[in-house]
Amino acid sequence: SLAVLFSLAISSPALASSMTSSAALTSSMTSSAALDSSMTSSAALTSSMTSSAALDSSMTSSAALGSSMTSSVALTFSMTSSAALDSTMTSSAALDSSMTSSAALTSSMTSSAALGSSMTSSVALTSSMT
């Protein structure tokens, strides 16, 4: 019985040391798990930052597309205005041509009236001579 107690007394510090080592191992494993969790969180943060950068790039592209569409609308409006101006100039040229034709007609009528007057004078002269 004494030998058993003596054996227990010797074994007890070793058991305590083993338990301490086990506790240290458990603590180390807990720290390792916390480190893994931290690394996972870091990876998730990196992924989130990458997604944010991609979103910024997408928004920039969208803004550029909007600007391009605005420019296209402005160009279309400008081309429409140019076409309207061409049409107006064409109408103005036609009006000028019409006025020129009208002036020529007036001149022709004046000449015709002068010819009529001349013929009347000729008839009067002939009558007078007769």
Walkthrough of the structure:
By secondary structure, the chain is mainly alpha-helical. The chain is 98% helix and 0% strand. The protein has 1 helix and no strands. 0% of the residues are buried.
How would you sum up this structure in a few lines?
The protein has one helix and no strands.
Element-level helix/strand string: H
What's the overall average pLDDT, rounded? 83
Helical residues, percent: over 70%
Number of strands: 0
Distance, first to last CA: 189 Å
What is the CA-atom radius of gyration, in angstroms?
A: 56 Å
Q: Specify the overall morphology.
A: rod-shaped
Strand content: under 5%
* Helix segment tally: 1
Structural class: mainly alpha
Uncertain ranges: none
Q: Major beta sheet, specifics?
A: none
Comma- or semicolon-separated keywords:
single chain, mainly alpha, 1 helix, 98% helix
Topology:
Layout lengths: L1 H128 L1
